[in-house]
Amino acid sequence: MTQSLNRIAAMTARYYYILRSSSLRLLEIIYWPAMQMMVWGFLYTYLYDSKSAMASTAGLLLGAVLLWDVLFRGQLGFTFTFLEEIWSRNLANLMMSPLQPFELAASLMAMSLIRLVIGTLPVMLLTFVLFGFNVFAMGPGLLAFFLNLVLTSWAIGLVIAGLVIRQGFGAESLAYSIMIVLLPLCCVYYPVAALPLWLHPVAWSLTPTYVFEGMRAVLLDGTFRTDLMIECLALNAVYLGVGFITFVALLQSARHKGGLLTMGE
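Now predict its structure.
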């Protein structure tokens, strides 16, 4: 157990040193979330100042953007850290070492969390300074939202990593596109009721839907929906397990096919 923790810590430290060694990498983590927040923030300001019919709910935009970015950046942080192993042609070396798949996955999760904190905290501060929106006004529910979105991002990241191992660079585009596909169905900017009835089961099968419905309940009604968060956590446990099993299965398949030795070529 101690050796396993040491290997996880060593891999996480390696990824952290790579990130810390490049100021451009750090800037990129903060830049895109900040630009997105400024665009939506100025729209929020316009709606509020114009006293439009949407002014009373305009704050939902900023809350939704912040939470969506947690999900999106969490997945990108996991996937990009893994892709760096592919780009450097180092994956085969790792798999020939004592490092186990769950240890690699754990280190990727840890690095995803580090990248997420680096990118999210400055944006939260920017949102408060420029637009007066305090994300911590969501109260203790914010921690539940954050936890569930991070778990979802890891589950998706595991599947993408497995597909890249098995299918090669043909699956690399999923790192950028998969979250965009899910965006309309996760009800980020509108309630589930806005979807056609036949899409409701699909929306409720996606864990981010529970988070964004919970966020709207907090900001509009001042009510924290514990039931939604418990259901979301249960679904995340299932999806995370399925994601890890998929990752290991695709890794083993690539080993049998000899794909690890040609990865990156």
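The chain has a mean pLDDT of 85.
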